[in-house]
Design a protein that fits this description.
By secondary structure, the protein is of the alpha+beta class. It folds into 2 domains: 73 residues, no CATH class; 317 residues, Methylamine Dehydrogenase, Chain H (7 Propeller), CATH 2.130.10.10. It contains 5 helices and 28 strands. A 4-stranded antiparallel sheet has the order 1-28-27-26, with no helix packed on it. It has a 4-stranded antiparallel sheet with strand order 2-3-4-5, with no helix packed on it. It has a 4-stranded antiparallel sheet with strand order 6-7-8-9, with no helix packed on it. β3 and β4 form a beta hairpin. It is elongated. The chain starts with a helix and ends with a helix. It holds the Pfam family WD40_CDC20-Fz.
Amino acid sequence: MAQFLFEADLHGLLKLDTPIPNAPPARWQRKAKESGPGPSPVGVSPMKPANRSHSSSKTPSKTPGKSGSKIQSTPTKAGGDRYIPSRSAMQMEMANFLLTKENDPAEESPTKKEQQKAWAVNLNGFDVEEAKILRLSGKLQNAPEGYQNNLKVLYSQRMTPGSSRKNSRYIPSMPDRILDAPEIRNDYYLNLIDWSSQNFLAVALDNSVYLWNHASGEIIQLLQMEHPDVYISSVSWIKEGNYLAVGTSNAEVQLWDIQQQKRLRNMTSHCARVGTLSWNSYILSSGARTGHIHHHDVRVAEHHVATLAGHTQEVCGLKWSLDGRYLASGGNDNLVNVWPCTQGGGGDFAPVQTFTQHQGAVKAVAWCPWQMNVLATGGGTSDRHIRIWNVCSGACLSTVDAHSQVCSILWSTNYKEFISGHGFAQNQLVLWKYPTMTKVAELQGHTARILNLTMSPDGTTVASAAADETLRLWRCFEMDPIKKKEKEKANSAKSSIIHQSIR
């Protein structure tokens, strides 16, 4: 820009019909002396137009050379008829340098270019090459640090939020597979399905337990109760997936070896049916219709090591946190209790938290996998609400009206979401975004209320058991292939580190 401005000034001077000497005329020198030393001759910023008029007169000056043939002297007062540029404001030396530089065909060495750049920065305060606005090639120049553009330009290097691609995934509205579940008991308080880490799905159908291999599709009948009036009321896999705990209607808790397909032991300590089970390492917790929770140490003969009495009616929801610090229990008395981890020994134990906000039976209890102190609970037909709790502070973080009976809740391990299974009135599955608690999708297909939900070991598929005597598999948490490879790579690296530390 500076080059263009000074070329215009030089063309204006050519209209005087007088040759331009190498040194300015005497009257210019006298004018400069009278005005004082002034700032540096090239002190004008290259991004701003130079001030081309220094006269305080309100009337425009006459054009030089058209006022007559008589030579006029320089006026001593403001308001003269002739424009005389001031060297203190015009970058004459810079204009002369740029004009002569373009006509100089000699190539300069890199050392000489660096030296000239240093001189330009010291004298002008900026690099002459960088002062050019228009460029034919080269990278886009970044704005200096702290610079703010008040013009609000339309184009930018960074993508604006409005133009960014929305991260949405495809969620199939139809189940991936439908399995028959004849004679499954339509009882809200029972927990009749569970998926093992070895990819076996255990299903309790009346007085029998069946195992379905998800990889091969093979079906195995694990057990059948001898007495026809005794039915299976709960099933739960140990974390390693090689043992299955089975609760019965005659107050028994059985432990089965899957590889050998035989019963290892039968633990009797309850006096009513066992509707829910949950593992914490070698401790198996069982909730009964009496409202009592028993801890069983499966390693020792005297398995009953503790009793938790915090419910007045049947315990229908029971879940240990992933870190093993807390046990959450929900009952038909509309209460949610959070119990601390006990190391054995008899005596009375008190819950660290008791939540009384639900107005219906609480069967759905689930711990957040990435926030160990966050618990999700869901109420029955008379409540129909999902609540998120902080068990450390006892605060209710979120509440949402599901408008349906809440039967089960599962947190996703692949997304910041959870899924809930419902009964009356729509019998649907709902995906929720956390922590906004907005609906992601609704999955419909069951014709009767959903009794239980369980998740595959890879966290991509949810199995739902309903009173319509069907099992439906929903691939609602399918991972993006790129993210899936990254997760597998991270898990393999983590396992290799663990093996190295063991060695």
